[in-house]
């Protein structure tokens, strides 16, 4: 399934869509975090936090942004945050020492210290350095390793939260606020008492709650600003076949705004509705000098059977800083350039069990600054080096033995969803108790010390994800060559014909050298759209397979696809796919420059835009 379609389904909270998205991008996410994680255990912590941040923020990802780039940005920021919290314990402890030293001098400062403890560590640290130590923003930026503008952002965000805390008669009333907002969510959206509260998380500027009915596989996600304003709402539900007219659905969106928010649609510009798979999106935006402001306003998704299933509020106050472009805006010239320079290439798509040949348009850019348009670099193809596989003696072990699955394990979860078919195992005598309702506790309870196996429709293994921790007293048993051989022995079990379709791509250690990471490439005379790479990871202590993701389609089908030929010409495909191309000028925030900069923005990543075509039938693909 193509990236934008996966993202679109996940944004609409379709059942299992986000999990499918994460499984597709797991290897890429793993590689990004590997560059930052110091060991296997940190890697898993960072990965889980990254996935949670992505899940919470996904509805805010607009069509013009690349999911891969967005995922990479979140992963990098999460990794940096993780080690700032962990490795910069001295500055944090210094803050604690400051509190203790002032405790003897002033009960007032002790009280402030207690209040600041209610903030997250970063905001607490910055506020102490600014308020008590009297450092400048520039000095603080050097101490904490953040840009000066980011330090200011955390400082003023901390001040806002501090004011909210100080307004309470006691620190205990902060917890009362959480209870009040939780009750407000239940009342606003009539959340049944049969639903289990899974998550209750305070993100300082956003209070997040999540409920689930496991039997019905439905749920709610609601978030508020600490002042009580609704920030987001998402409902996962089972739909009927009723299909209301657009005008009726628009009235339902307006009713939701009137009943649940203080937003006034006439104060915003109304964008054209977007027709999604199961809903229609109504969006209200803000403009400056006639151009749309990115991530401003709000949107509502109303299902075709009449239910509001998504609401997201962005910034609803006009930003102050806009950097006017030095060049004149020429939207039509940019459109002409894209019509000429966009390539249309043939790919072998393995995004479904059948596979198909597809044409896909690949533009030089999706978005570029107005002032940098003429300087935009030419896109270069990735270079993939590979060589034939070596031969190894088959292993006498079973697949279960190679992944560490024994009689001591039991199945704790099973999914029969066609796109997420699989089982999760954990040792029978292992019980994990969640200490709270935080996102971290929720993810630990679901993933810690588990082995996850994903199956194809025919029952064969498609993927393996092991989160079991090896005994600390075991020594590392294998080097890279031995790990490579072990990976080949495993492929002999799960992909018997691997020698005919795979080529060796590379072998390396992960950051803390606890795993051997082996990469293989599928052999094809037609480039793969996605899924042309297979990864196998081996634990050096136990020799168990801890990660594997196989091909989407069967080997015989893969080989037959390579013999097929397109019936549509690339020229005709490009002409058809680009017929609905649009370009507009949009203000986008630059965090480093702390201002909004005008960009040329295409509609190529919008949910309604088709960037792919079946090369034999001419059908447009999502």
Explain what this protein looks like in three dimensions.
This protein is of the alpha+beta class and 622 residues long. It is built from 18 helices and 27 strands. Strands 1, 2, 3, 4, 5, 6, 7, 10 and 11 form a nine-stranded antiparallel beta sheet that branches. The radius of gyration is 26 Å and the shape is globular. The relative contact order is 0.12. Mean pLDDT is 81; it is low at 87-111 and 379-385.
DSSP E strands, number: 27
Residue runs with pLDDT of under 50 for 5 or more positions: 87-111, 379-385
Question: Helicity range of the residues?
Answer: 25-40%
Task: Tally the helices.
Answer: 18
* N-end to C-end Cα span: 8 Å
Largest sheet: 9 strands, antiparallel
Rg (C-alpha, Å): 26 Å
Structural class by SSE content:
alpha+beta
Mean pLDDT: 81
- Principal-axes shape call: globular
Proportion of β residues?
15-25%
Q: What descriptive keywords fit this protein?
A:
globular; eight-stranded antiparallel β-sheet; 27 strands; alpha+beta; 18 helices; nine-stranded antiparallel β-sheet; 24% strand; 622 residues
Secondary-structure topology with pairs:
Elements: H1 3-11, H2 17-34, H3 40-57, H4 67-87, H5 89-105, H6 107-116, H7 121-132, H8 137-144, H9 148-167, H10 172-188, E1 196-202, E2 207-213, E3 218-224, E4 230-236, H11 246-260, E5 269-270, E6 274-275, E7 279-285, E8 287-288, E9 291-293, E10 298-303, E11 308-313, E12 322-323, H12 331-341, E13 343-349, E14 356-362, E15 367-369, H13 399-403, E16 409-415, E17 422-427, H14 439-447, E18 451-455, E19 461-466, H15 480-494, H16 498-501, E20 502-509, E21 515-522, E22 533-539, E23 545-549, H17 555-561, H18 570-577, E24 583-590, E25 595-602, E26 612-614, E27 620-621
Parallel strand pairs: 9-24, 12-25
Antiparallel strand pairs: 1-2, 2-3, 3-4, 4-11, 5-7, 6-7, 7-10, 8-9, 10-11, 13-14, 14-26, 15-25, 16-17, 17-18, 18-19, 19-23, 20-21, 21-22, 22-23, 24-25, 26-27
Helix pairs in contact: 1-2, 2-3, 2-4, 3-4, 5-6, 5-7, 7-9, 8-9
